[in-house]
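Now for one protein, fold included:
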Amino acid sequence: MAIPQKVLERLTKEVKRFQDILKRAKERDINEADTVVIITDMLSNIFGYDKFVEITREFAIHNTYCDLAVKENGAVKYLIEVKAIGLDLKDLHLKQAVNYGTTQGVKFVILTNGITWEVYSIRYERPIQFNQVFSMDFLELNPRNAKDQETLFLLCKEGLSKAVIEAFHEHQKTVNRFTISALILNSSVVNVIRREIKKIAPGLRVDNTEIEDILKNDVLKREVLDGDPAKEALARIKKAISKATKQKESAEKKPTEPMPAIEPQQES
C-alpha cells in the first residue's frame, strides 16, 4: 500500500500528540460530548479531513442523530458512533451504529470511544449483514510502524479518495483461511492431489472421496469448515466458478467472422 509522504509526516507528528490527549482524557473520564470534540479533531489533524466541510456533527437521520458523518464531495462515506472515552464498546452500541448506517445507506460505520476504533462493513442483504473490517487500539499504535501506518491510512482522506478500505476489505474477504480451505476441497484441487499421489505410487487406486475425507477429518480444522464464514467463502467460490464457466461457454459459442475475400489484382 503506497502512502503519500505528506500523510506519513502527518501521522508521525499527530498520532503521538493525540495519544497523549486521549490518555489525559481517559484519566479525567470525560463525557461523550467531549469525546466527540477530540475525535473531530483527530479526523481533521490525523486523518486529513476538513472539519468545516467534510465532517458533520449530530448528523440527522430521520428522527435521531448520529454523532459524526464523514463526507466526500458532499456524499456521506461513513458514519461514526461515539461513546464516552471511559465506556467499553458493547453489542448494543454496534447495533445502534449499524442501524444508523443502514438507514443512511452507507457501506461502512465506525464505533469508537476515542481509544478503541472498530470499523464495520454493511452488506445490504435480507436480513442485513455486517462484519468487522478491522479494529485498533489507538494508544497501542506506533506511527513509525509500517503496518500501523497502513491501518491508519484506511481511514485517511487520501485513502478514502483511492477506495483503499474497499480494496482492503475485498482482500480480507478473499484471502483468508475459510476461502483457502474451501478451495482446497474444490474438485479441481482434489484432482491435482490425486494425480500427484499417483506419481508417488503409480498404479495405486485412490478416488477423490477418500482424499476429501482425509482433508476434512485430518488436515483442515473443523472451525474453517463450519459456520457462516465458511458458508460465505464456499458461496463466493461457487459464484466465481459459475461466472467463469458462463463466460467461457459464451466465448466458445460466439461465431468467428470470416476473413474477407481477397480480390485478385488485375495486371495493368
